Each structure stands twice: as structure tokens, then as C-alpha cells.
Amino acid sequence: MGACITSTPLTITAYHEALQRAVPKAGAIVTFTGQVRDYNQQGPISGIHLEHYPGMTENALTKLVTQAIARFSLLDAHVVHRIGDINNYAPIVWVGTAASHRKAAFDGACYVMDLLKQSVPLWKKEYQGEQGVWVQTKASDDHAAMAWLKESPKGEEK
Amino acid sequence: MGACITSTPLTITAYHEALQRAVPKAGAIVTFTGQVRDYNQQGPISGIHLEHYPGMTENALTKLVTQAIARFSLLDAHVVHRIGDINNYAPIVWVGTAASHRKAAFDGACYVMDLLKQSVPLWKKEYQGEQGVWVQTKASDDHAAMAWLKESPKGEEK
Amino acid sequence: MINIKTFAQVREVTQEAGFSLPLEKANSTVADVKVTLRMRAPCWGEALDDGVLCAVNQVLCDDSHPVAEGDEVAFFPPVTGG
Amino acid sequence: MINIKTFAQVREVTQEAGFSLPLEKANSTVADVKVTLRMRAPCWGEALDDGVLCAVNQVLCDDSHPVAEGDEVAFFPPVTGG
Predict the structure, then answer these.
(1) B106 membership: H or E segment, kind and range
(2) C54 to chain B: nearest residue by CA?
(3) Which member of A35, B4, B40, D11 has the greatest number of CB atoms within 10 A?
(4) Is residue A25 within 8 Å of residue A36, measured between CB atoms?
(5) Which chains have at least 3 CB atom pairs separated by less than 8 Å from chain B?
(6) C-alpha B103: how far from chain center
């Protein structure tokens, strides 16, 4: 199991090989790579900046991966998230899941990404030239989604 | 777009990198790797043999990938399937999908694997020592699943 | 002549992976080919039992599908790949 | 003293990324801390508007959550990562 934050470019191939080495007997491995798109709803963008909450971000990612492993009986799951300035088309996030069967591996990876988007303390600013604009979300949706984070990371898992 | 059959070990990393190079602007890339498990419902196995229908297998895979791209508006999708004798823990099949958003990439990869299992002319024999036993499926389920293959690969896609 | 192909259990039961077969009449169908094959040897009766699939020129077909001179007609069990 | 931290828009609006703040009374809650911060400068009123989240010692909390001496209390907008 692994959850990691980095300000340097993601090395997708290395993560994939590490996961495979960690659980060589897995029947199914699913990976997700999220990359910076060159547009948003307002038009073209020239890159993003991702701010994080040092400590809490790592804890939230670790908790998320631990929950995914328990919930879907995964053999293993890793997540790596980049922070700081990131150019268009560069990978932002990588998730890898390993399971005995493919449904669990797919469901686990989807779950990690869904919750990550809603509940890990990361904030995205999109740039159009020099002008950076924070990405907005509906607070109401987000409050509900963040509810699971209210459990202590060191507490009992449900 | 690519669909390929090989009797040599899969080179997952190379496929992943090729997909990324093919659609560098994709927002989301999902990969699935299926590997030989060392057991079945009867007990431990020592490896498998996969037989295919030369020509029809390639056509079916190509059609499947083409349909997945159309159905989920994927930017690209690749599938590579190994045939012949395959040892425990070795990769059998690799699927990679690229899309603007993650749901399409996940759904596309799931779809390719679901239909592949049911509708591509591949037959698996599992070995316990020297003794090989064909994997069975319920004909009734399979007839329904194979229905889509009755459309000509060169015909109009629905 | 048509080209018969077999795969997996069908190939093992019949011990014939591929061979040519004369078309016995005009307007033949997959069902007609099956009748001819069943008369070829007892093992073909076993091989063509319920559940066996047929592809004509690599497209999956029902028993009513026409079979013409030069066609490739394949018989195989339900698939189990992936 | 408690340690206040801010992120993203909250940090930019207040122009204070982190600082120490005396706890004004025993049995303080997040709501009490917010009252103190709103009096600190007008920008804090804006920064603590609806939708801002609070974490005490890196665990997300409601306004009623207790805040004790030495706690890390962070304010930030809804998350938008991934």
C-alpha cells in the first residue's frame, strides 16, 4: 500500500512496475492516470497549480487507499499525486489497484478517484497566461463528500 | 486504435507508453492487465494454454475496440491478447483506454474486458501438471453474449 | 468445396482441425453442413452437440445461415478467453 | 496558543498562511475561533464565508468541535484536486 505526494513529474511506468512486483500473483491490475487538459469550460488554459495541505493530504490519501483495499478486498493499491506547477498534458495523479478479479480492481480504482476528487485537501488553480483562477466546486456537494474525512485517520474503520 | 494477438510475453510498459504517445492530450488513461492466477475452483493450476481462431480473433478484437471508442467517445483504445502456453502470474491480456474524462476511460476499459471474455474466439485450457482441462462456460449465457458478433465486422456499426 | 475448421474441444473430439468438404446441394445452410458432418463419423455427432457455435467466413451464424462454395465454416465451443 | 493555517482562496484573501493565536477561553470550539478571527480584520469575514471548511489537527470538523491549547486549526475552501 502506498500514498505519496510529489512536486516532481510522475514516473508512471515505475509505479506500474512497482505495483506488479509488490503483488506478482494478482489476477487483475488496473491503473488510472489523470493528465492536465489544455482547456476548461471558459476556454484554453496554459497549465495549473495544485496547492496541498502538507501532512493532511498525505493522511487523507493513505486513509483513502486503506479504505479502498478493505472495501473491495484489493491485494494492493497505490496512489501518487503531483502538486505545484504542472504543465498541460503532464500527469497529475496515478492510481493503481491489484485484485484477484477484474471487477474489484476496476471498482477500487474508480472509488479512489471519485473520493480523491471530493475529499483530499488539494486545490487547483488554472492559468490563462499569467492569470490564475481557482477552480470552484459546489460547497453543498463537497460538504457531504468530505463527511468521511471527519472520522479520525487513526480511528476505527467502519 | 490497435488490436493485436501475440504468442510472446506481453510488454505492458511499452503498450502503456505507446498509448500515451498516441494521445498525449488525453485527460484520462485507464489500463487493465489480466494475469494468470495459480488456482481455479478445483484447486491449484500450473499454467494455461489459450487457443485462438487466427483471423477471426483479430477481427473480433478490432471490432470490439472500434465499438468501445464509438460508444464511450474514447480518444483511443488498444488491446493486446496473448495466446499459446502461458505460465502462472504472466500477463494474458492488456487493455488501455484514453479519454477526456475519467468515467469514459474506466467505462471503456470495463466494456472491452466484459465483451472480450464473452465474445472473442479464445479458448482456455487449465493445466494441473500434465493434465489439461478446457474451461467451461454456460452455453446459454454465451449465446446471448456472442450475438453482437453476428454483425459483419465490415458492416455498419450501430 | 467449403473449408471446415474446428477449435478447442471440437478439434480434440473430432481430431480434425481443418479439411475441405463438398457442398452437397445448392442453397445449403449451416444446418445442412451439420447433417453432412454428423454422417462423417460418430465423433462429429458428439462434437456438434448443443452449445457449439458456428462462424461462416469468421462471422458468427445461426443454423439457418446460407453456406456457399468457398466459404470457411468453423465450429467451436463457447469462448473462455481473457 | 493554537496554530492557524490557511490554504488556497482563504490564504490569498487573508494573506496569512499561518500564525499563532491565543485561545481566549476554556472549552473553546471552532465557532469561537471563527469569532476571534472575524474580529482580526475585515478580510477574515470574507474568508470565513459559507462553504469554508475547517480541520482541527488535520481532521475535518464542524463548528461545534472543541479546540484545545496547541491544536492546529486550518481553514480552506472545498477541495478541487485530482
Answers:
(1) helix B102-119
(2) B150
(3) A35
(4) no
(5) A, C
(6) 19
Instruction: Kindly list the structural domains of chain A, giving each domain's residue range(s) and its CATH number in brackets, ordered by start.
Output: 2-155 (3.90.1170.40)
User: What domain count does chain D have?
Assistant: 1
Question: In which residue are the cell numbers 487513526 written?
Answer: A154
Domain housing D35: 2-76
Q: What separation in angstroms does the CA of B63 have from each of A73, A147, B12, B119, D76?
A: 33, 44, 22, 11, 49
User: What digits encode the pLDDT tens for the residues A2-28?
Assistant: 999 999 999 999 999 999 999 999 999
Q: Does A30 touch chain B (CB under 8 A)?
A: yes
Q: What is the pLDDT along chain B (158 residues), one digit of tens a residue?
A: 899 999 999 999 999 999 999 999 999 999 999 999 999 988 999 999 999 999 999 999 999 999 999 999 999 999 999 999 999 999 999 999 999 999 999 999 999 999 998 889 999 999 998 899 999 875 545 555 555 555 544 433 33
ipTM of the prediction: 0.90
How many angstroms separate the CA of residue B5 from the nearest CA in chain C?
A: 12
Nearest residue of A to residue D81, measured between CA atoms: A122
Copy the grid coordinates of residue B38.
495459480
CA A132 to chain CA centroid, nearest Å: 22
Using CA atoms, how far apart are residues A41 and A25, in angstroms rounded to an integer?
A: 43
**Which residue type, as a one-letter code, is found at position C28?**
S
Residue C40 in domain: yes
CATH of the domain at D15: 3.10.20.30
